[in-house]
């Protein structure tokens, strides 16, 4: 697994930090379920007043029925006024991208 993150993420307000944590947690859980043993990259960056989460597994080897994980991630990010995308990457893998604004209250 490849992990990259900005040190400034430690100062996020608790609700936003929890949302970022849960997106990464669910993305990793999905990767273990649908792409066990495959390379995985996780990037957490802070720029433009937002935290950007990028999780990509390179090869889906065990596709299965959809659960509630992706819709739960989307809902969590939407409530904070962010954006969320989860989709096949066109190369056999799967990518989750979320942007969580640093400011502003839940919708």
UniProtKB/TrEMBL annotation:
One of its GO terms (molecular function) is kinase activity. The keyword Chloroplast does not apply. Residues 88-107 are annotated as: Disordered. This is histidine kinase. Keywords: Kinase, Transferase, Two-component regulatory system. It catalyses: ATP + protein L-histidine = ADP + protein N-phospho-L-histidine. Residues 19-102 form the Histidine kinase/HSP90-like ATPase domain. The keyword Metal-binding does not apply. SUPFAM superfamilies: ATPase domain of HSP90 chaperone/DNA topoisomerase II/histidine kinase (SSF55874). It holds the Pfam family HATPase_c. Its EC number is 2.7.13.3.
């Amino acid at each position: 697994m490849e992990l990259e993150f900005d040190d400034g993420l430690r100062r996020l307000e608790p609700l936003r930090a929890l949302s970022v944590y849960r997106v990464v947690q669910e993305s990793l859980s999905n990767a273990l379920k649908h792409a066990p043993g495959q390379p995985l990259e996780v990037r957490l960056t802070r720029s433009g007043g937002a935290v950007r989460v990028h999780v990509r597994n390179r090869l889906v080897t065990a596709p299965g029925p959809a659960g509630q994980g992706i819709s739960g991630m989307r809902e969590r990010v939407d409530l904070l006024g962010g954006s969320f995308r989860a989709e096949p990457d066109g190369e056999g893998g799967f990518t989750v991208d979320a942007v969580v604004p640093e400011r502003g209250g839940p919708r």
